[in-house]
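Hi there, hope your week has been kind to you so far. Do you reckon you could talk me through the fold, stretch by stretch? Thanks so much in advance, here it is.
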Amino acid sequence: MIADKLICAGVLLSLGFSGLRADLTMVAVYVLLYPYLYITSRRQAVRHLLVASLVACCWFFIAKGQYGYNREMLLIGGYTVYPLFAWAVGLFGVYLMYSYWVRIFPNRTLPGKLVFFVVLYWSLLFGSEILAYHYFHFRNIATANYAGLPLVDCIHVPGWMQAAYLLNGPLYFLICEFSGFADPNIPVRAALPR
């Protein structure tokens, strides 16, 4: 859908490619996803978004004190909320892409689907982190003293956070898979039996 591509463009703009504030753009994208999914008859995708939000909330509760950026950010209770919304939108977006592309593979076993999702997730994670850090100079000054991941020089946080960055996506994927949710890209009317 063209609107899906516009949402992706909005997320890219939030990285600092425009004069828009990244945090406010990410909050707006997140909030507008709900009516957008209803309008496009993909109400079942809301479940995926809610699970992504739950994973993001858990992560935010654990790591909220580890975020502080080199630019003005929306704070709630003294903590920047950008990572909360970025994780929810990012996880959901990756799953949307995964569920669209995974259909082309025959004999989709759970391990095979997991490997495909992880490759897609890590590629997008590293790509967005590298762009944000090196091109847009988007820095988490709260963890600036930590080395980035080897070879890619991104995700400058303590080791336990680096591990969580790599594992949040597969965790979200497994929750969605074991929950048995319908494909988030198929409109509800097309998914109903005739």
Remarks:
- Residues 2-184 form one domain.
